[in-house]
């Protein structure tokens, strides 16, 4: 199933089924504005934001894979 990921000012990352347009997953761990997100070649989704946090998710399983909390300031990008 082809998936598409989006990020919004509502602080959520949503993963969509590209065939149906159905929202398959919502990840909402950030508590302040998102700055960036990226999808890895393996299909993992990483996000970062103004809450000084970065997260990594597996959208196919619907799980949080990692919490990256070592920054003391806004995390502005992920790759």
Topology (elements, then pairings):
Elements: E1 3-7, E2 13-17, E3 23-27, E4 34-39, E5 45-49, E6 54-58, E7 63-68
Description:
There is one protein chain. This protein has 79 residues and is mostly beta strands. It is built from no helices and seven strands. The chain has a four-stranded antiparallel sheet, with no helix packed on it. Strands 1-2-3 form a three-stranded antiparallel sheet, with no helix packed on it. It is globular, with a radius of gyration of 12 Å. The two termini are 23 Å apart.
N- to C-terminal distance: 23 Å
How many beta-strand segments? Answer: 7
Radius of gyration computed on alpha carbons: 12 Å
Mean pLDDT over the full residue set: 95
Oligomeric nature of the chains:
single chain
Series of secondary-structure elements, N-terminal to C-terminal: EEEEEEE
Provide the β-strand percentage band: over 45%
What would the principal axes of the Cα set say about the shape?
globular
Low-confidence stretches: none
Major beta-sheet overview: 4 strands, antiparallel
Strand order of the largest sheet: 4-5-6-7
Number of helices: 0
Primary descriptors:
about 0% helix; three-stranded antiparallel β-sheet; about 80 residues; mainly beta
Quick synopsis:
By secondary structure, this protein is an all-beta fold.
């Amino acid at each position: 199933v082809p998936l598409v990921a989006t990020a919004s000012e509502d602080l959520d990352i949503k993963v969509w089924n590209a065939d149906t347009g159905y929202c398959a997953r919502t990840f909402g761990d950030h508590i302040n504005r998102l700055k960036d997100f990226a999808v890895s070649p393996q299909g993992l989704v990483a996000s970062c934001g103004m809450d000084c946090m970065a997260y990594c998710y597996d959208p196919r399983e619907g799980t949080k894979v990692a919490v990256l909390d070592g920054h003391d300031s806004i995390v502005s990008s992920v790759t």
